[in-house]
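pipeline stage [seq->struct] | target=glucose-6-phosphate 1-epimerase | organism=Physcomitrium patens | residues=309
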Amino acid sequence: MVEFVKDGATGMEKVLLREPGGATAQIHLYGGHVTSWKNEKGEEMLFLSSKAIFRPPKAIRGGIPVCFPQFGGFGALEQHGFARNRMWTVDPNPPPPPPFAGTGPNKPYIDLVLKPADDELKIWPHNFELYQRVMLGFHGELTSIIRVRNTDNKPFTFTFALHTYLSVSDISEVRIEGLETLDFLDNLRDKERLTEQGDAITFDSEVDRIYMGTPTKIAVIDHEKKRTFVLKKEGLPDAVVWNPWEKKAKAMADFGDDEYKHMLCLEAAAVEKPITLKPGEEWKARQEISAVPSSYFSGQLDPCKVLNG
Ligand SMILES: O=P(O)(O)OC[C@H]1O[C@@H](O)[C@H](O)[C@@H](O)[C@@H]1O
């Protein structure tokens, strides 16, 4: 089921997806931003700050901001680009889904699009179409399919990320598997290139890293909640891991002082090698997140078993 509603608290337009098994998702047209994803028991799986500001030009703190045409400070534009604080529209006539879309009759989805108006063209002079299909799968998994199309008469280059804020019980009880031994750029050390050691990543201080050449599946294991998130991705070779920890949390106006304990950003991204599109070309990417009880998870990263088993 797909429903269009006005958010009572913010007056903003949003879309509700409800999958027959009971899972739900909410997508705000502001930012093309997934702000809620609940499993069939009604448990929220995305973090959304209690202080999130739903008012332009602020980006919404939590959920899944879309970073385009620039990730972070990797360029001359505002941090994370402008797509996350612009109004998207529902696309009445979406392009046919790519073969990996996995759409089906009972899978609710919505197609959104962002095209530049004069404002955007002034700061980034390129005609583009940015499409996002958000979809709930049979097991409540949340999928975003992204397409960027160059509708200009000259090439353009961009970086991109789906800045997913996962809800976790306690950041000290969480570990990430799948990024061991990879190289990363450390944002806390002026983007110095370092190599991750052999162990799964755990957290006891601020982390802000861009892992490069990452696998198509990454797992976030929440020991306390006995829940594992499995993030599968295509077309997004990098993975950003971010937790602001205590000091930075206190400095952010739209973030509660202690909220860093209950969130972890795992961001499927294309940053290290920016994407260039010639006129008429299209770029596609896909992210699917599922949440499974950790007892299904062997401790070895074999999310094929988790997803298909
Ligand atoms: O506060 P913003 O603009 O939403 O960014 C949050 C964080 O987003 C992460 O992706 C960046 O790596 C961090 O450096 C940044 O602090």
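stage status: PASS
auto-comment: The CA atoms of residues 97 and 284 lie 10 Å apart. The two ends are 26 Å apart (CA to CA).
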